[in-house]
Amino acid sequence: MQRTTTVVPQADIDRQLAICDQIAQLSAQRGAQPLAFVDTYGCQQNEADSERIRGYLRRMGYGFTGDEEQAQIIVINTCAVREHAELRVLGNVGALVHVKRRHPDTLICLCGCMMQEPHIADKICKSYRHVDLVFGPHALWQFPEFVQTLLTRRGRVFRTADEPGSIAEGIPVVRQDSVKAWVSIMYGCNNFCSYCIVPYVRGRERSRAPEDILEEVRQLAAEGYRDITLLGQNVNSYGKDLDEPMDFSDLLRAVNDIPGDFLIRFMTSHPKDATHKLFETMARCEKVAPVLHLPFQAGNDRILKEMNRRHTRAQYLEKIRDLRSLIPDIVLTSDVIVGFPGETTWEFEDTLKVLEEVQFDALFTFLFSPREGTPAAKLPDPMPREEKLRNFNRLVELQNEISARKHAAYIGKTVRCLIDGRSGEEAYPLSARTPGNRLVRLAGDEGLIGAFADVKITGANTWSLFGELI
Ligand code: SAM
Ligand code: SF4
Ligand code: F3S
């Protein structure tokens, strides 16, 4: 089979790295180390992309700062999934005009999903004249040459051409955490759920070669990372574009075989592609955490059809039953959209029924947000906002009750947790995660960060657990 995915030739990545080195030399000659400010909106995929942007920046000789005023380069990695996210970005980018006025040499760069939307790129071009560089996710691998152009010539750079997307290996990475790591296993999405902008801005599904993924995980395990999340918009369709097709379950098994004491997580799974084979593989692989994020979006079949989800409520519930028969204590989380165009309150109640039946441990709830260019944005949407909000609040209340009840059931149990950082609370300074990714706050020494430890759960609320080290 011919590989349909375009892989950026290594020589092209090497050329970008050589540009990084030239920029680093120039800044070294100037004396003080230049600083970069990188801000990220959106999902883990964007977090992972920002780690590559930081990787390039470090190779260009930049250090990092959390203060825009100190930075010689500002990079804002944006998200387009809902209007709220976009408005926040536009507000913050608007405010950067003052930074640019005070520091005219500071480079202001916008990247990420929003920049791949033609009307947004247009708006930035016309109305945000202080922005120097705009590029979409497809062009991330060329970031060094864009910076070089800005540093050596006057003018602005816009690189937002629509394309199916490619895969670029060998970009340096600066990770934000020393315990948890993201590993993108694929990019893009082919599903075109009718409300969603992601396939338009992230391009078609394309899978990284298994040997590249396994090598990255091997390195992370050797460096002592304890919690590794495999990322993709729909990881269950991993491998379909590879020369020698390998499915996600096979990949999971291969990652599980890598020696080391670490947990494997993955997200996101699409119900239509989550198979019995996947559930069996999860049950058999001791490193795969007993947790599944399986978005169902809506409980009513008419709405699911309008959403182009290609699964019914019954099929979803059957998958959950199958999974629970193999892993009875599986932790389940999901995404739900309230107020899809045309959804009646009567139809919305089917969503509540799914919550009651499945008893999710946690839920990510969203109010429908029309996205320009998606089919759902053109549908008539007669329900008043107040009614949507009333339904939204009913959903959140029901889930809060379920989450609190599920959390309370942990009290008295001893759970092997990964201590993953500081909680910011005086009484419980450490934060930890159960294998099912429930947050636990506890007292203890910071030296324990990065270790697995037995924790006795002593308290719980809707959002987290409290415990003590044994
Ligand atoms: N690929 C994943 C999936 O299929 O579930 C996640 C996609 S998206 C980054 C995360 C969540 O945002 C979706 O599961 C959906 O609930 C929500 N979402 C996407 N588009 C939305 C929209 N237009 N309005 C409200 N919520 C939206
Ligand atoms: Fe969006 Fe659907 Fe793709 Fe998820 S599967 S990214 S919701 S189109
Ligand atoms: Fe947002 Fe792009 Fe992720 S739209 S949710 S950052 S894929």
Descriptive account of the structure:
This protein has 4 domains: 10-159, Rossmann fold (3-Layer(aba) Sandwich); 177-273, Transcription Regulator spoIIAA (2-Layer Sandwich), CATH 3.30.750; 290-408, Transcription Regulator spoIIAA; 414-469, OB fold (Dihydrolipoamide Acetyltransferase, E2P) (Beta Barrel). It has 470 residues and is of the alpha/beta class. The chain has helices at 10-30, 44-59, 83-102, 118-127, 143-152, 198-202, 210-222, 248-256, 276-284, 301-306, 313-326, 345-358, 385-408; strands spanning 6-7, 35-40, 63-64, 73-78, 107-112, 133-135, 157-159, 166-167, 180-184, 186-187, 206-207, 227-231, 263-267, 291-293, 331-338, 362-367, 414-422, 430-433, 439-442, 452-460, 465-469. The strands form 6 sheets. The protein has a 6-stranded parallel beta sheet with strand order 3-2-4-5-6-7, sandwiched between helices. It is globular and about 60 Å long. The model has no long low-confidence stretch (mean pLDDT 96). It has 13 helices and 21 strands. Residues 43, 81-82, 195-196, 198, 233-234, 268, 270, 295, 297, 335, 337, 366, 368-369, 371 line the site of S-adenosylmethionine.
The bound ligands are: S-adenosylmethionine, iron/sulfur cluster, FE3-S4 cluster
Largest sheet: 6 strands, parallel
Poorly predicted ranges: none
Strand residue percentage: 15-25%
Keywords:
5-stranded mixed β-barrel; 6-stranded parallel beta sheet; Transcription Regulator spoIIAA; binds S-adenosylmethionine; 4 domains; single chain; binds FE3-S4 cluster; binds iron/sulfur cluster; alpha/beta; 470 residues; Rossmann fold
